[in-house]
Amino acid sequence: MRIGVLGAGQLGRMLALAGYPLAKSFVFYDLSGSPSAGLGEVIVDRDGDYLDDFLTRVDRVTYEFEHLPVDVAEKIAALKPVHPCPRALQVCQNREAEKTLFGELGIPTPQWRIADSADSLRQAAEELGCPVVAKSNTEGYDGKGQAVLRAPSEAEAAWTGIGHPRLIVEKFVDFSREVSIIAARGEDGEVAYYPIAENSHHEGILRYSVAPAPKMAADVDDQAKSYIRALLNELNYVGVLTLELFQTADGLVANEMAPRVHNSGHWTIEGAMTSQFENHIRAVSGHPLGNTDARGYSCMINIIGEHGDLDAIMRLPYAHLHLYNKAERPGRKLGHVNILADSYDELRWRVKNCASFLPGCPEFDVDL
Amino acid sequence: MRIGVLGAGQLGRMLALAGYPLAKSFVFYDLSGSPSAGLGEVIVDRDGDYLDDFLTRVDRVTYEFEHLPVDVAEKIAALKPVHPCPRALQVCQNREAEKTLFGELGIPTPQWRIADSADSLRQAAEELGCPVVAKSNTEGYDGKGQAVLRAPSEAEAAWTGIGHPRLIVEKFVDFSREVSIIAARGEDGEVAYYPIAENSHHEGILRYSVAPAPKMAADVDDQAKSYIRALLNELNYVGVLTLELFQTADGLVANEMAPRVHNSGHWTIEGAMTSQFENHIRAVSGHPLGNTDARGYSCMINIIGEHGDLDAIMRLPYAHLHLYNKAERPGRKLGHVNILADSYDELRWRVKNCASFLPGCPEFDVDL
Hints:
- Two copies of one chain form a homodimer.
- Chain A is of the alpha+beta class.
- In chain A, 30% of the residues lie in helices and 28% in strands.
- In chain A, strand 1, helix 1 and strand 2 form a beta-alpha-beta unit.
- In chain A, helix 6 packs across helix 7 (155-162).
- The radius of gyration of chain A is 20 Å and the shape is globular.
- The A-B interface holds A 13, 16-17, 20-23, 25, 38-40, 273-274, 282, 287-288, 290-291, 293, 295, 311, 314-315, 317-318, 320-325, 335, 340 and B 13, 16-17, 20-23, 25, 38-40, 273-274, 282, 287-288, 290-291, 293, 295, 311, 314-315, 317-318, 320-325, 335, 340.
């Protein structure tokens, strides 16, 4: 079976690395002009002229990013099986649609309002009570197109700063930590859940994910599963879905979802029985899902901007290096390291030791 | 770094899958006309016209099979770093040279003689005492070009049957089991040993490898390490080397070595901290070696001839499937399954259960 991947970055690369052992081959369709997957056939198509050509070469289609135009996804879906479905894409591209769906399914979200002017932004900030976070309703990514308002009087500046005609305004959530749950759903409706990961972001970029998340109460765990299960079933979803959540004193509050394999699931390559990448390929191909159990305790450390001392990291007997073969650039995800351990105590010092070889890596701040 | 691989079969494929996460890219040089690696750039060169072209594209060269003509390897070595060195290749292509080297290094072998006629074969059988095994001195592979003599009178028929001008005749070894040790040596001379595997062959084809080998005494383990270390250092070897051994009441006896990653090391993909493939790439690239510790108990089951019920295997929560994307053909290696467990008892029933989905798979006969 030949799988077409829309996008040709590191997620596509890791999907392919997981799919070859299942006898899949891969064709990447790149809209950016700078594919980095580095393996498989790549069709670079900045002007959108070769989509039909791409489709004739593949049996099934999936994607590695949620910013694909929905009309393109729908056009593809009319010709070849596309997983996940275009509706999942549509929901993820529009925060208002996403939060509305969360609400319909009983998944808690921060209180929110829509603002379509500086004035309505100010009014939303007053109604919700500051601080609030204003985000462009579409096209936001990794903290871009966002502003925090400490007072309603900051609305004018925030509106101008974001420069988007429609914003979603969220009441600030007083959370103790950020977590994510990743699950896969097969063609037959079977669902498999990965252990929840605890995530640590710095300057809007994920730096650490620890899995299984420490000190996770069983009822909170069940809550997370019920939320992602509701989404998977409602969307008749096939593939891997990620749900980012805030943990608060009153339970979990959904931040956003991503219709794909996710950076907070990279630990699964060595840290779970079946990686998120393999399970996505299994689901998209119509195979049974693989076991999502953790193998010990894992922490994923992102390599951001600079590679650091890679030879030193390769010498660590508990570290697995995954490079994306990209040139260094500030803020760019260049790779990640998976740290394995048999206990949280062991994991803590191993992570700190590894991080010391990564320049600019923030201090490990997950409470194990 | 771009690595050139001489050969384009499943070993090359698995080397590439392990090498991409270390930011390597791959060019395969295929002499067979039927490459199966399925990823990376492949130069098919049945007539040997494109070797120079291949060499201009790569930084370092390795190989996935030991049947490469030594003069080709030497020609390459004059232009690019080749690991392992051509001498290792030369030794492995000639059983007499191999056994002579083993003898020089104090590595026990079966008693052996050279035969260059039916008459000298008969004489060798008489001197050694039957049963003996006669093997073509060069070009033998997976039990081909071999004959067992139960009596010296069978020499004429065996000589004609093998049809090779120079044979090595070995006294039959009364062994309790077949094991193999795999080790990697880095450019700096560092050596890392994998746990010994116990191997079960049927009709000359490896069917099961269990690692770590059960009931392995520490002194026998040390013996195996000292033998492979002697070979690695004598050959100034860089990369992964495999040494196949018979375990007897008097200790270990060397069968043969392979200058490459080996089927009996496929369990390392999920069963060891660093796979044999990654360690070979690390060594060839001049990186530090990775941790060779086992992660629990593993058994590799080869998929031979027919694929069987792959969906059933994918449903097993302890099985990892590795397909080579090849068409079915009797006796052909199509893939393997790695079974993981936390104890030998658990491993036994898991292996038996998985094998039940593989048509023609012989009964699991490793004594755990």
